[in-house]
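Bug #77: duplicate submission created two jobs. Keeping one. Sequence:
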Amino acid sequence: MMIKNFGKHIVLGVSCFFLSIQPAFAVGSTAIANHHEMKLRLNEQVVTVNGQNQTLAAPPTLMNNVTMVPLRFVAESLGTAVKWDELTRTITLSTAKTAITLTIDSKDARINGVSTALEQPATIINNTTMVPLRFISENMDQKVSFDSATLAITITSKAIQPVAVQTKRDKPTVDNLSIALPSAESNYVKIRDIISDSNNNVYMIDVNEKYYNYRYGILSYNQKEGDGRNIQKTTFIDGKFNIQYKDSRGIMQRVPSNNITPKKLYYNSLNSKLYLIAQASETYIEEATVIYEVLPEVKMVTYNLDSSMNEENNFISFLDQEHFYYSNTFLGKLYDFQSPSETKVIGRLPDKQGNYVSVNMDDNIYVLDKENKKISKINLDGTVSEVAKLHLGQITGAATRNGYFYISDAKKIYRVDVSGNLEEYVNIDNLTYNKGLFDPKTQTYEPPAVNYKIENEESIAYQVEGPSALNIGGNPLFTIDNAGNIIIYDSLNRILRRINVF
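Kept job's structure:
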């Protein structure tokens, strides 16, 4: 009888969740990000959430010295999505970053797939599902305090560290971070992508079309200690990138590194790792899209046999250290990968042939489509909700950093929040150019080169003109560093430059 009643209860509950959980998820996440406070007392049904009273289906109850509260209260207050598996009697509460799985009357729980033991399992009391409050709250990045004298429990969002206030320059300056990049055989060499990490490093994919072996590599430059005259390769796309995988027939295939084409770089700030999406293609072998971890070590993370991925137009959005979503813009598919599981399709993108970049904000994933000029939210169930349209004539380039999109047109770079609010970040016509090569170790500029010519039988010195002004028309490659400055590959002058916004 208990199971029957429980089934009826949870079906009704989940139906209500589907009606209300999307607004609750958005509002809850925002509240947590700014300041979230819940106050409740053992054995009392009235609780306070952000100053507003609510009445619970059942009062907080102490079981085996663990405070148990109704599932609905936790889900709606913390802004989590809820899924119920009737066959296994499991409940999954999830945000974009964290998934907690509980099984009714079982002490075994999972956090992002990792098993852990509960002191008190989830249970059913008078047809109300009761779950452990502290366990769920703390694993959703909340702080829980208990006053034993008054039996009062307070849950607040963890303190956010203050961010130093930066002042933008009235007139941004431009530093030359390198000489011609790479300097050798420049007619054959191109830069394909650029990205920065949290440690002042800038990474670029370079392509030397003259060679078959060692055609591709990843360059790196450190903004604190780098030598702009000799930018080094972090790695070649060499034997370390050899892979093997099972094709759709279950046959193991092997692809050597000279058939691996790197497309785009990604950085996961949650584990400080650099990733690469690449195409594996060889005659008579089923083509695959491969995602590699590049730093600190090279290894294949996952692969995908869906053809025509348009890899350079896709996004990867990291939910935690080993969990991410990624896209296939050609087929309009959205994938979920969580190690050690296999990739699975969880939804579809509304616009095929898009060109996406993504950010995580308040435990939600947002994507900006350069081609269709709009921002959308990726929901946990794989559906996509349009948030805003951008009114620009053309978006020539895009990058992301710290919850913002950065987009360019022919003359300006804009910063855009996830709601579509757009502000001018840099006007290319309003830049001051520093002369010479910038030395980050001495914070000085090496004077421009001096050449000599003969006039009237006399040797006359003349200064070589520096690189020309930046041009962000076409398809500029730029990234945003930790300080909010713009690192851009100047394809016209073939050098790496920095726009000092702050």
